[in-house]
Amino acid sequence: MTVDEALEQLLALARQAPFSAREQVPLGQADGRVLAEELRATLDLPPWANSAMDGYALRHDDLAQQPLPVSQVVFAGQAPMPLQPGTCARVFTGAPVPAGADSVQLQENCEVDGQGRVSVLGALRRGDNIRVQGNEIRRGAALLAAGTRLDPIALGVLASQGIRQVAVLCRPKVALLSSGDELAGAGAVLEPGQIHDSNRVVLAALLERLGCEVLDLGQVPDDPTRLRAVLDEARQAQVIVSSGGVSVGDADCIGALLREAGEVQLWKLAIKPGKPFTFARVGGVPLLGLPGNPGSALVTFLLLARPYLLARMGVAQVQPLRVPVVAGFAWPKAGKRQEYLRVRLEGGRARLLENQSSATLLSATQADGLLEVPAGETFAAGAVLDFIGFAAGVV
Ligand code: AMP
Ligand code: MG
């Protein structure tokens, strides 16, 4: 099955079963959370006409009577009097423009005579340098759609509307486990044949960033009895994410268990790295079974698990942002699977990192992101391909 087909199925399943529990949170705690309802403006922004510059506010028709005496001074935060005809008002950036004034001339373009009267130098059109009421946001206008993932910019828009609390989706609870006899306990000294568990740290952090609450079930040996017990516990979560044990080796316990129970929905995808990725159900709870190799776990999380989880959160934009970049290398041998290459962007071109092994994570730390190479394609240096940047909120 191709990555696109798998994704289509995963997203269809996810959209059928959206998470629905919501809660109110203060704006200061809403970064990264998913908005549960559409928000509309309750205020015009700006709420009143204000000056875009330090200068003088006047009635355009009064330009014929220059020089104009200054009848008031208005700082930001003050409430002005209506403008007396035949005068101007000294105004500063952000100050309300007095009623009756329709233009502001910058102070650099004005001349003040010995009696403090102002003459305007240079052209001035009616309306210049005034930010009119509601020109940015009109009361009642749509601000943010339900399913928007709040970021610092969106929070600023809400703050500008005086919104202090928002309804967001409750964090979905995701059970996380690693499988493999070789995994040593956290902080343990390695025995012969053992390695440290890195996937669980990576995946826990990625899940947290996605707005999930992680139920960390630790590492489970390749022992069906132990695994059954842990999966039983995992069923209290809304989704289970595992790594390792989904290939076809003798010790690949999770896959064997799921296949035996006949609950596998997706398995063996045309993706490199990440072919053993498995989607299944454990007692009705969806399980995203990522391969154990750290590079594969990372890629399948970003390309498959992440969009699935976001779709269940009601997020519209679930796919990572793809941007076209020029490959600085050739790809003469077509692969059977869609491939995700770790690349670094240098001088506007993607440079292929030397170590593309699915077993390593280090080269991913040196990469700016992944270059997507469709199955069966070759290309010459200079070809343009889709690039998925790690920095674009993906990791
Ligand atoms: P598996 O998918 O279980 O066949 O594992 C594939 C490879 O990934 C093996 O070399 C494992 O030792 C390694 N591996 C599995 N789980 C982890 C993990 N949690 N952290 C780091 N490496 C892992
Ligand atoms: Mg294993």
Task: Give structural notes.
This protein has 395 residues and is an alpha/beta fold. It folds into 4 domains: 3-20 and 170-312, MoaB/Mog-like domain (Molybdenum Cofactor Biosythetic Enzyme, Chain A); 23-41 and 139-169, Molybdopterin biosynthesis moea protein, domain 2; 50-131, Molybdopterin biosynthesis moeA protein, domain 3 (Beta Complex), CATH 2.170.190.11; 322-389, MoeA, C-terminal, domain IV (Beta-clip). The protein is built from 7 helices and 26 strands. The strands form 8 sheets. The protein has a 6-stranded mixed β-sheet with strand order 16-13-17-21-20-18, with helices on both faces. Strands 22-24-23-25-26 form a 5-stranded mixed barrel. Helix 1 (3-16) runs parallel beside helix 6 and helix 3 (199-209) runs parallel beside helix 6. The longest helix has 19 residues, at 294-312. The site of magnesium ion has 6 residues, from loops.
Strand content: 25-35%
Global mean pLDDT: 96
Query: What is the topology, as strand order, of the major beta sheet?
Result: 16-13-17-21-20-18
CATH superfamily of the largest domain: MoaB/Mog-like domain
> Oligomeric state of the chains?
single chain
Radius of gyration: 30 Å
Question: What fold name stands as the CATH topology of the largest domain?
Answer: Molybdenum Cofactor Biosythetic Enzyme, Chain A
Give the overall silhouette.
elongated
Biggest β-sheet: count, sense, barrel? 6 strands, mixed
Number of helices: 7
Small molecules bound: adenosine monophosphate, magnesium ion
Named at the architecture level, the CATH assignment of the largest domain is 3-Layer(aba) Sandwich
Q: Report the span from N to C terminus.
A: 25 Å
Helical content, roughly? Answer: 10-25%
